[in-house]
Every structure is written in structure tokens, then in C-alpha cells.
Design a protein that fits this description.
mainly alpha; 305 residues; globular; MetI-like fold
């Protein structure tokens, strides 16, 4: 197949196979994603099954400590749930929210960036000023503001019931300007080139020119941003959950697990917060390192050099 042959001969694969950090990060990320999505099959316990949770097992230390049990390898949390199982299920929730939020960010940002860069004029000014206003606030501030509005509008109970889609919308709306500004810059450079002028001359509509001709040439920067934004979205979910505006304690995510164990750090039950924190840092670290590698590979100057 042509695409497979081109991929095998691509600079992307060539660079990947010669970068030990990228290979190691990819393997770690694949393992984390696999174990999280296979949680229902490999997790020792089901943290959503209240009938299997015994409050008498609450705050049990990891099995290698005094008072630990082989049944709970990483110990239990304040509700008696197995920490290893809640970590696997919680990491899956965090990854899903992060990826879906980035898809939403990318869709909104790419569409706005294409329209703004191609049409220009007052539309460009209006859309970019709107992005500038949002960028003047920190992402977390916007997310907290939107989360508070959603909780007030829908009620805490309904918000917790639909916490995953709510968080996807909140984080997606909070970080689209990054895509819009990047895509707009690419469009401004591309629309002056001969192939775009030729498309205009033969009478193609603006939507077709933007979608079929200009958009494919903006994919590289979008991919680079997306890798970084996945890590940012996962971190945003963790921060919102830690602040009580994200996933409820009854539906574990990495952020809600850290939040639920924070008050127990100084009482001796450090593992309730430490292990979710380690998984969160590891997940974000490998994604960011892969994003750095991808940015360097897709840098045209590096490619030509």
C-alpha cells in the first residue's frame, strides 16, 4: 500500500526510531492507555459497585506496609475502595475527558481560524478580538467560571450526573483560542500562494478552498498543539475536580482521587493522594515529551536542515 510505503520512508518514522525518549514515552503512554481502558477486565475490584465496597476497609495502607493486605495492593481510600482499581478507572475518565475536550477545542479553533484568516476584514478583527479577550484570562479562571455557571444553571445533582460531557464542554470552550490563532497564522501565509489563487480563478467557492486546499496545510501545527493540549486538558480536569467543580468523588478521576485524599495526607493516609498524583504527573510528562518531539520533527527548518 502506498500510504504504508510512504510512512516507512517518512522523516517522522526515521526520527522516531532514533529518539530513545520518544520511544520510551510512547511505550509508557500506550501501557497507561491500555491498562486504563482495560480496567473492567484487569482491575481487581469495581469501584462503581457499592456492594463490593466495605467501609471497614477504609484507609488501609499498601500491602507492603504494616496493616496492608494483598487484596489491596496500593491500599484503599477513605471509602474503602481499592486504590489500584480506582486509579485505573479514574485514569480512563481523565484520558477520555482530555481527548474529547481537545477534539472540541480543535474543531472550534480550526473553524474560527480558517474563517478569520481567509475572510479577513471586520470578521477577522471581531473573531481575533474575541480570542484576545479570552486569552487575557487564565484558562483555569475561564474553566472555573464556566463550571460555576453550569453548576448553578443545571444544579449540582444534574451536573454530577453528566460530569464528563460538562467537563468536555467547559475545557473545550476554555482553550480554543490557541488553535484559532495558530490556524489563522497558517491561513494568512497559505492564502497568498499560487495554488489558492488558482483555485479562486477557476471559480471554487471559499468553503471548498478553505476545506480542501488550505486546511490540509495547517495540520502540522494543529497536531503539535493537540499533543500539548491533551496534557493541559487532563491537568485542567484534575484541577477542576480538585476544586470540587469536576468529577464527583463517587465517580473517580485522577483529580477527584487527589481531592478525596488531600485531607488525609497529614493523618497518615498519604497513599490516597500520592498514587493518583504520581499517575497524573507521569501521564502529563510523557504526553508533553511526545509533544516536544513532534514539534521538533514537524518543524520545517529542522526538516530541511
Amino acid at each position: 500500500m502506498d500510504w504504508w510505503r510512504r510512512f516507512r520512508q517518512s522523516f517522522l518514522l526515521y526520527s522516531f526510531l532514533r529518539d530513545s525518549v520518544a520511544i520510551a514515552c510512547s511505550l509508557i503512554l500506550i501501557v497507561l492507555v491500555l491498562v486504563s481502558f482495560l480496567a473492567p477486565l484487569i482491575a481487581p475490584h469495581n469501584p462503581y459497585d457499592s456492594s463490593s465496597i466495605d467501609i471497614l476497609n477504609a484507609e488501609m495502607p499498601p500491602m507492603w506496609m504494616d496493616g496492608g493486605s494483598p487484596e489491596f495492593i496500593l491500599g484503599t481510600d477513605s471509602q474503602g475502595r481499592d486504590m489500584l482499581s480506582t486509579l485505573l478507572y479514574g485514569m480512563r475518565v481523565s484520558i477520555i475527558i482530555g481527548c474529547l475536550a481537545v477534539l472540541m477545542q480543535a474543531f472550534i479553533g480550526v473553524v474560527i481560524g480558517l474563517i478569520s484568516g481567509y475572510l479577513g476584514g471586520r470578521i477577522d478583527s471581531f473573531l481575533m478580538r474575541m480570542a484576545d479577550v479570552q486569552l487575557s484570562f487564565s484558562t483555569m479562571m475561564v474553566a472555573i467560571f464556566l463550571g460555576a455557571i453550569f453548576q448553578e444553571a443545571f444544579g449540582v445533582g444534574l451536573y454530577e450526573q453528566f460530569a464528563v460531557p460538562m467537563l468536555v464542554i467547559i475545557i473545550g470552550l476554555a482553550e480554543w483560542p490557541q488553535y484559532a490563532r495558530t490556524v489563522r497564522a497558517s491561513v494568512l501565509a497559505e492564502k497568498k500562494k499560487e495554488y489558492v489563487e488558482a483555485a479562486r480563478v477557476i471559480g471554487l467557492r471559499a468553503q471548498r478552498i478553505m476545506g480542501r486546499h488550505i486546511l490540509p496545510n495547517t495540520v502540522s501545527p494543529v497536531l503539535v498543539i493537540s499533543t500539548v493540549q491533551v496534557a493541559n486538558a487532563i491537568m485542567s480536569e484534575a484541577a477542576l475536580s480538585f476544586l470540587g467543580l469536576g468529577m464527583p468523588v463517587t465517580r473517580p478521576s485522577l483529580g477527584s482521587l487527589i481531592n478525596s485524599g488531600f485531607e488525609y495526607i497529614f493523618s497518615g493516609s498519604w497513599w490516597i493522594t500520592l498514587f493518583p498524583g504520581i499517575f497524573l504527573v507521569l501521564l502529563i510528562l510523557v504526553i508533553n515529551l511526545l509533544g516536544d518531539w513532534l514539534r521538533d520533527v514537524l518543524n520545517p527548518k529542522l526538516y530541511k536542515g
